[in-house]
Amino acid sequence: STIYVITPTYARLVQKAELTRISQTFLHVPQLHWILVEDSANRTSLVSEFLAHSGLTYTHLHVPTPRDRKLQEGDPSWLKPRGAEQRNEGLRWLREESTRGRQREPGVVYFADDDNTYSLQLFEEMRGTRTVSVWPVGLVGGMRFERPVVEGGRVARFHTGWRPGRPFPIDMAGFAVSLRLVLANPESRFDGNAPMGFLESSFLQGMVTMEELEPKADMCAKVLVWHTRTEKPKMKREDALQKQGLGSDPGVEV
Ligand code: UGA
Ligand code: MN
């Protein structure tokens, strides 16, 4: 089956570095269709050119996060959910494609943020997803890892350091959904107004129950994806040189 990877992305200094890193992981995955959704009013030329030369099968979408829902400079990163509208736009595209009858093959949908680190084995684990499959995520939630706890082959509860009472206390990187289930639940989407930590639950609630989750990665004993975060580069020297008219050539794309 085809794995549809939906990735929200936004313009910033490290964007091309992030996209380079994950796209070169994806190049090693058979039957992967990348749905890259820019958080912007238009498709940018940086991302358009990047995709055209990526060697991947892709769909390039865009939708801006409404201003009142967008994190502003200086806000703590947990204040508002990120990437919700973009993931919904990816879902909209998938559902529209299917109504046009373009998707007869079985598929799997995975939401891959542009800054995480993905093992190739993860994609083979999720490829057989029938409803919703789940696995551990490393370096997340202030923990070494979070994971579903499996008993007798079923998910019994979740190992998490924070609000374990959430319907699905799983990071975005910790689950994949079958395309069939996404299409069977045309109303399921991410709630951009969800309180902190409830974004994943807003989508999964109503689509699947805890008992139906399919534990992968050796019954959730292996970490195959890491919630890495890239440091924001400091531009102190660049700013100083620019004031003297000696800044780095703006014609060079970074
Ligand atoms: C955590 C989760 O891992 C995310 O899946 C979840 O969306 C996020 O929290 C949340 O609570 O909203 P975190 O590392 O804090 O992730 O979030 P980012 O990696 O900064 O953003 C998630 C995705 O949204 C990334 O692919 C990023 O490129 C994109 N994004 C971020 C935008 O499209 N627009 C923005 O303004 C910010
Ligand atoms: Mn992230």
UniProtKB/TrEMBL annotation:
GO molecular function term, any single one: metal ion binding
GO biological process: carbohydrate metabolic process; chondroitin sulfate proteoglycan biosynthetic process
Signal peptide annotation: none
Binding site for Mn(2+): 115
Record-marked site positions (Interaction with galactose moiety of substrate glycoprotein): 146
Reactions catalysed according to its record: 3-O-(beta-D-galactosyl-(1->3)-beta-D-galactosyl-(1->4)-beta-D-xylosyl)-L-seryl-[protein] + UDP-alpha-D-glucuronate = 3-O-(beta-D-GlcA-(1->3)-beta-D-Gal-(1->3)-beta-D-Gal-(1->4)-beta-D-Xyl)-L-seryl-[protein] + UDP + H(+)
Active site: 200
Reported cofactor(s): Mn(2+)
The protein's enzyme class: transferase
Membrane topology label: Single-pass type II membrane protein
Cellular component aspect of the GO annotation: Golgi membrane
Pathway it works in: Protein modification; protein glycosylation
Top-level division of the source organism's lineage: Eukaryota
Major localization class: membrane
Enzyme Commission (EC) number: 2.4.1.135
Region of interest (Disordered), ranges: 234-254
UniProt binding sites for UDP-alpha-D-glucuronate: 8-10, 39, 82, 87, 113-115, 227-229
Family that this chain belongs to: Belongs to the glycosyltransferase 43 family.
Protein name (database record): Galactosylgalactosylxylosylprotein 3-beta-glucuronosyltransferase
